[in-house]
Amino acid sequence: MLDDFFIRALIAGIGIALVTGPLGCFVVWRRLSYFGDTLAHSSLLGVTIAYSMEFNIAVSIFLISSLIALILIHLQRKTNLPSDALLGLLAHSSLAVGLVVIGFLTFIRFDIMGLLFGDILAVDKNDLIIIWFGGGLILLVLKFIWKPLFASTVNYELAEAEGLNPDRAKAIFTILLAAIIAISIKLVGVLLITGMLIIPTAMARNLSDTPQKMVVFSIIGGLLSVFIGLFSSLEFNTPSGPSIITAALLLFIISLLKIKQTIQLKN
Amino acid sequence: MSNENNILVKLNNAGYKQNNKWLVEGVSFTVEKGKIVTLIGPNGSGKSTTAKIALGFYKGIEGQVEKFTNKIGYVPQKISIDWTLPLRVNDFMLLTDKLSDDVVDEALKSTGVYHLKNKNLGNLSGGEFQRVLLARAISKKPELLVLDEPVQGVDFTGEIEMYELIKKISANLNCGILLISHDLHTVMSATDHVVCLNGHVCCCGSPTEVAFNKEYKALFGEQASKTLTIYEHKHDHVHTTDGEIKKN
């Protein structure tokens, strides 16, 4: 069964959606969408390093993204530049350096479109193991830091006063973000992974009145996007990443109708 | 110092420096079980900083801080909840601890916001939110309560009622309270020990001692000394927090 590329892509997509749901909620709540983008852009550099040194792609991306996150924290402390400028600086320069390095690696045949937008054909059995094992690990760690992370998302000082450790939770969350980007890059692509984190979550926000519901709806939205996206990718021969994100966008638009209804009910 | 065992937190000549500038220095006081200590002072006088020193937020402070309890309830000065986070009052109460429904209900009732239990935090008014914060702090049965301007945004009659409530909490839970306030009059009637700050300790003592202290008058004006008596007259009825009228 796993010999069929489409089944593999589907299993990979399900694994990714289960993880991006809860992580995406924190990205939205903590206003980290541009931060996620920066990590994703830097992952192209990770890919090129993996190719040139014949290294595992996911591990390489994970290391580079974590390194970029560390550099960002360092720059935030040392410079007077605002965070969004620093994020832009890191995102675009790491993307540029990644593309320049690709230019030098003429001896390797690169599917640049596949890297940027995801490739349904690229998922092999190894990737499935990485996605499900890595994804499980991410969720396990997230469950562990959930309380301090969530409490400090609501209010940092309250969490600290009540004996939780918000800074540690934040640092671990950053690593988890780098990890989900690393494992989902093949299917969704460098440019669109943040969309996978944010758009189903945005849809979920429109439908929920509690944080728990928002996480559940976000996972459901991600799963539906993967199903719809991958089937239409197969049907219309479109790249997998954009198809999944377009499906997510459609779901978001449908969820807007729900908001409109509740507003009308209130009036 | 009635009893050494009753001390919850003790500051000895404590201070905190940021960017080579003293935010506050040379502060000494103790908070004991069942006692209310109030910090007063103008804006920027280091009231919140002092509270945070007592809570142990800062690293590298001057002087000594000794804490004898870990059961601390804290109501921070300014807190805003993002609308991106769909959070009901009930979820907020359970944020850092698993509390039983009864405990949550009781705490919400005691600050008069039980009817808001399933409302979204983003839809509360400033005063309602302040009451929820206080309910949250006392639901944990703390030994030490640190309240940073707990009545801001609460309307005038509610304000007096809140201070009555704070007094009651201190008696019922037998907890020590470190209260920060800038409104002088209501505070004065509900406190055991007043520390008047202005970057350092201007004066301290019982409310009456402080009210007639020369430095206090210089800081707040002659009129401030007289506020002590303003609220000592009686009404024949009270307005409860949920808007009902009760006869005395």
Question: How would you describe this structure to a colleague?
Answer:
The complex is a heterodimer of chains A (267) and B (248). Chain A is mostly helical. In chain A, 84% of the residues lie in helices and 0% in strands. In chain B, the strands form 3 sheets. Chain B has a 6-stranded mixed β-sheet, sandwiched between helices. At the A-B interface, helix 6, helix 7 and helix 10 of A face loops of B.
Reported by name, the CATH topology of the domain at 5-189 in chain A is: ABC transporter involved in vitamin B12 uptake, BtuC
Series of H and E elements of chain B = EEEHEEHHHEHEHEEHHHEE
Q: How large is the radius of gyration of chain A?
A: 19 Å
Number of strands of chain B: 11
Strand order within the widest beta sheet of chain B: 5-6-7-3-8-9
The CATH topology of the domain at 1-71 and 144-151 and 175-234 in chain B is Rossmann fold
Pairing-aware structural class of the strands and helices of chain B? alpha/beta
Question: What name goes with the CATH superfamily of the domain at 5-189 in chain A?
Answer: ABC transporter involved in vitamin B12 uptake, BtuC
- Mean pLDDT reading of chain A: 88
Instruction: Count every helix of chain B, treating DSSP H or I runs of 4 or more residues as helices.
Output: 9
Number of discrete helical segments of chain A: 11
Q: Give the CATH level 1 class of the domain at 1-71 and 144-151 and 175-234 in chain B.
A: Alpha Beta
Biggest interface, and residues per chain?
A: A-B, 24 and 22 residues
* Low-pLDDT segments of chain B: 228-235
Multimerization state = heterodimer
Low-pLDDT parts of chain A are none
How far from one another are the termini of chain B? 37 Å
Topology of helices and strands:
The complex is a heterodimer of chains A (267) and B (248).
Chain A: H1 5-29, H2 33-53, H3 57-78, H4 83-104, H5 112-117, H6 125-154, H7 156-161, H8 166-188, H9 193-207, H10 211-236, H11 240-266
Chain B: E1 7-18, E2 21-32, E3 36-40, H1 47-55, E4 62-67, E5 72-75, H2 89-93, H3 101-110, H4 126-139, E6 144-148, H5 156-173, E7 176-180, H6 184-189, E8 193-197, E9 201-205, H7 207-211, H8 214-220, H9 223-230, E10 237-239, E11 245-247
Parallel strand pairs in B: 3-7, 3-8, 5-6, 6-7
Antiparallel strand pairs in B: 1-2, 1-4, 8-9, 10-11
Helix pairs in contact in B: 3-4
